[in-house]
Every structure is written in C-alpha cells, then in structure tokens.
Amino acid sequence: MKISTIAQLREMTPFEDIEKEMIHKMINFINAHENPMDQKLEVGHLTGSAWIVNKERTKALFTYHTKLGMWLQLGGHAEVEDESIKHTAIREAYEESGLESVKLVSEDILSVDIHMIPGRKGFPDHLHYDIQFLFEADENETLVITSESNDLKWISLEDIPSYNNEKSIMRMLEKGKIVYEE
User: Fold this and answer.
1) Residues 6+ apart with CB under 8 A from 101
2) What pLDDT score does 182 carry?
3) Checking phi first, is residue 44 left (phi over 0); if not, alpha (psi -120 to 50) or beta?
4) Residue 73's pLDDT is what?
5) What count of other Cβ atoms lies within 10 Å of the Cβ of residue 19?
6) What is the DSSP string of 72-131?
7) Structural domains in the chain?
8) How far apart are the first and last CA of the chain?
9) Which residue, 29, 85, 145, 168, shows the most beta carbons closer than 10 Å to its own?
10) Spans of the chain below 70 pLDDT
11) How far is residue 115's CA from residue 38's CA, in Å, rounded to a whole number?
12) At how many degrees (to 10) do helices 2-11 and 17-32 cross?
C-alpha cells in the first residue's frame, strides 16, 4: 500500500504550490509510519475521499457532516479490509451515499489535502492526510443518509462556494473541471 500510494503521489501534477507542499508532506508522513492508514495513530492518518459528480458533470454530491458541522465531500477513515486508500474512498462513496451507481472515473489521485481535525473522546487534535479521487454517479438514484451525515445533497458546481469555499473544496472543484474536459 505504501509503495503504490507514494508512487501515485509522485505522479501527480500539483495544481498549485500548496498542493505540491502537501504532496511532499504526505510522502514524508507515509514513509515515517509503518501503517499510515491506522486511525489509532494519534498524530494523524491517511483518509480517502470521493469527489462524486453527476453524469452530466454539473453537480457534486455533498454531505452535511455531523461531527464537523459543515458541507463536505464524502470520505473517511481506512478500515482493516481496505487494500489501499483508493479502496477507502470507494467504500466510503458507497457507504455514505447509499448509491449503487457510483463508479471511479480515474485511477489517478484527483487532489490531496492535509487538515486538522478537532480532538474528541480522549483522542487529541490530529491531522487527516486526505487523498481524493473522482467518481461519477446517477443523481436520480435515491440517497441514503447515514449516522455520519445530517443531509446529502447534489449541489450545482457554480453554487459549491456558497456551501463551502475552503481551499481543498475549491481545488477539487477546479481540478475536477480539468478532468471533465479531457
């Protein structure tokens, strides 16, 4: 897992200097830890995210995250059965949406982000080294809200900044548009 993830990170073309820096930090983090996907790793861990767009590529699926209280892409922690962080993103896409039509658009990493997660229940503040993949799904399929979400919503790409204008979201939005045009 470590070798293939590092290889994929090295193959990425950074969108901006900050993403280039995050790729470098992520590679160092992976090299420094035996199992960088382990949720019990208190300094942080790898997470996998799914940037899911509709088939027309005019909307993206967002979840209103229960614990963080904000609209985000779907994704989360690796589980023991996940073969790779890509498999984490795939599993999370299905689990958090209830969609059956979800399909991975590209094996390549779409984007990366490193962000602080507030501590809770005896677990300290820690970093999520998030690796993000591009997916496509049928927006007419029924969504299933889980315990991790207060809501799920297809949001038009032009409206996304009014729901969440954090740099990582804007980066996925812009990088996704580039992939759509290819």
Assistant:
1) 137, 138, 141
2) 62
3) left
4) 97
5) 19
6) E-EEEE--TT-SSHHHHHHHHHHHHH--S--EES-SS--EEEEEEE--BTTB--EEEEEE
7) 2-181 (3.90.79.10)
8) 28
9) 85
10) 180-182
11) 17
12) 160
Only one residue has tokens 């989360």, namely 76
Look up residue 113 and give its amino acid. D
Least Cα distance to 131 among 41, 42, 4 occurs for 4
> Which position has the token pair 């809501």?
151
Length of the chain: 182
Beta-carbon count within 10 A of 133 CB = 27
Separation CA 114–CA 47 (nearest Å): 10
137-167 core/surface letters (b: 16 or more CB in 10 A; e: else): bebeeebeeeeebeebebbebeebeeebeee
Q: Which residues contact 42 (CB under 8 A, 6 or more apart)?
A: 123, 124, 126
Q: CA–CA separation, 180 vs 54, rounded Å?
A: 11
Encoded tokens for 26: 């992520």
Task: Locate 89 and state its tokens.
Answer: 């993103």
